[in-house]
Specification:
Elements (H helix, E strand, L loop, with lengths): L6 H16 L14 H14 L3 H4 L9 E5 L5 H8 L3 E6 L2 H14 L4 E4 L12 E6 L9 H11 E12 L4 H9 L16 H7 L5 E7 L10 H17 L2 H4 L5 E7 L1
Parallel strand pairs: 1-2, 1-4, 2-3, 4-5
Antiparallel strand pairs: 5-7, 6-7
Bound molecules: S-adenosylmethionine.
The site of S-adenosylmethionine has 20 residues, from helix 1 and strand 2.
Protein name: Class I SAM-dependent methyltransferase
EC number: 2.1.1.-
Organism: Salinisphaera aquimarina
Length: about 260
């Protein structure tokens, strides 16, 4: 299953695959049985409430007839938005469970898409195959992010764009998590690297032009309960979001890069 490489990196990828086969992203917010239409709707509603910046930053309807690849597509909800906008979409993921769910998601929505279990660090696609490569919440979880970035650039057409997200090491969420000792998702993943702005810039060096924005500011939590959650929801979220944006801009929990080949 794993592409040729050294034994250590193959072991690391096997651990990543095993973890994500058992921890499908945002799974725990769904109340409905896995794989049902309601299950995908619940995960999508949660995601786009938490990441309300996504449709503002990413023009999901702007790629009609273009070829889009989603690396580490999970259950395929973002890719479904591109597909609804008329794009020809391909989703890959290291975890078979995600790919099975992504296929079911598309089938139930009546959308066309091609899905494969594949390692984003070593893809079987030809050079210059896609107009857009999308990769959200994946780079910090993979064994060799630099190999993934090089592969993404390779499969992108000249002049094409990659939209790449990772986690900001110095974010408001990390500070809150340390101060309040709250759980954040996937801290138990075998690999969870977080980046400074400069480290992310240097990871993206293979690209000709890169713009990085900081996003993901506080929204009320739905997954935590008890007094900490009440304190956070009632006394933190509102006042934080009323601070001048220029004061907190660089503390966004997500770095979102638009990188041109
Ligand atoms: C946090 S989930 C994100 C899923 C989806 N992109 C989203 O934003 O909801 C991380 C996903 O990346 C996948 N992944 C991690 N390393 C990968 C790799 N080397 N190649 C392909 N997929 C990978 C995992 O299997 C998992 O489904």
């Amino acid at each position: 299953m794993t592409a040729p490489g050294n034994a250590d990196s193959n072991d690391r990828l096997d651990a990543v695959r095993e973890y994500w086969n058992n921890h499908v992203h945002d799974w725990k917010v769904a109340r409905s049985p896995a794989g049902t239409p309601e299950f995908f709707e619940e995960i999508e509603a949660y995601r786009f409430e938490k990441l309300h910046y996504l449709p503002l930053r990413v023009d999901f309807n702007g790629y009609a007839d273009e070829r889009i690849l989603d690396v580490g597509c999970g259950v395929g909800n973002d890719l479904a938005r591109f597909a609804k906008g008329g794009a020809n979409v391909v989703g890959i993921d290291l975890a078979e469970h995600s790919i099975d769910l992504a296929r079911a998601n598309f089938e139930q929505r009546g959308l066309a898409g091609h899905f494969e279990v594949m390692n984003g660090e070593s893809m079987s696609f030809e050079d210059d195959a896609f107009d857009l490569v999308y990769c959200h919440t994946v780079l910090h979880f993979t064994a060799n992010p630099s190999a993934m970035v090089k592969e993404i650039r390779r499969v992108l057409k000249p002049g094409g764009t990659a939209i790449l997200m990772t986690v900001n090491r110095h974010s408001w969420l990390n500070v809150t998590q340390r101060l309040m000792k709250i759980e954040i998702d996937h801290l138990d993943a075998p690999i969870f690297d977080q980046y400074t702005y400069a480290q992310f810039q240097s990871l993206l060096e293979p690209f000709a032009k890169v713009k990085i924005v900081c996003e993901r500011f506080p929204v009320p939590t739905k997954v935590h309960k008890g007094w900490k959650a009440r304190l956070y929801n009632d006394l933190f979220v509102g006042p934080f979001n009323r601070l001048p944006h220029s004061w907190v801009e660089r503390s966004g929990h997500h770095f979102l890069a638009f990188a041109e080949k």
